[in-house]
Specification:
This protein is an alpha+beta fold. The N and C termini lie far apart (41 Å). The chain has a four-stranded antiparallel β-sheet. The protein is built from eight helices and four strands, in the order αααααααββαββ. It has two domains: 59 residues; 110 residues, Alpha-Beta Complex (H-NOX domain).
Length: 180
């Protein structure tokens, strides 16, 4: 997992809970890296799991909620850091539909060793609905949901989001434009 995910998590924890909390969760986690991350480094997924588990114990906030909040935070941070990825889209469905084909393609150019989740997108019913199937051996579905929420917030559009677990350990996200 790329270090930017770790640095952004720790930045979010510091801004929400203070530096002492960052120190506490690093000390209470099993981290082969010692908790020293660079944005371009690559670290084991087990380290982020350990950090989030420690944060959950310290804050009494369940892990799925923490991951959704983090995913939302991460989207906004990445959109600021890499505005070219979002500026070409005026609609969140168009943006989300190109995560696999454009954004992940560009990320792999910068970081060939990046182990990214995969997304299969379709618009089966109508143009104002997107189905995204998420698959990853790291099972960060909750963070993915937060990233989707962050993108919807970024574009300021009114959408509903439904999530369904598929039998093969993939997740289906159905994003629909609200029409009222």
């Amino acid at each position: 997992m790329k270090g930017i995910v770790f640095t952004e998590l720790l930045t979010m924890v510091e801004s929400s809970y203070g530096f002492d909390m960052v120190d506490t969760i690093i000390e209470n986690s099993d981290l082969p890296s010692g908790g020293a991350y660079t944005t371009v480094g690559t670290y084991s997924h087990s380290e982020i799991a350990s950090l989030v588990t420690s944060l959950s114990k310290e804050t009494n906030v369940d892990i799925p909620t923490l991951l959704k909040v983090f995913g939302t935070y991460l989207f906004h941070s990445l959109a600021k850091a890499y505005p070219d990825f979002v500026k070409e889209s005026s609609d969140p469905l168009d943006f989300l539909e190109q995560v696999e084909t454009y954004i992940h393609f560009e990320v792999r150019k910068l970081y060939p060793d990046a182990d990214l989740p995969t997304f299969v997108c379709s618009r089966p019913n109508r143009n104002d609905e997107l189905h995204m199937i998420y698959e990853s051996n790291r099972h960060m579905e909750d963070a993915c949901e937060g990233l989707i929420i962050g993108s919807l917030e970024h574009f300021g559009a009114s959408f509903s989001l439904e999530r369904k677990s598929l039998p093969d350990r993939r997740e289906l996200f159905v994003i629909s434009k609200n029409t009222f």
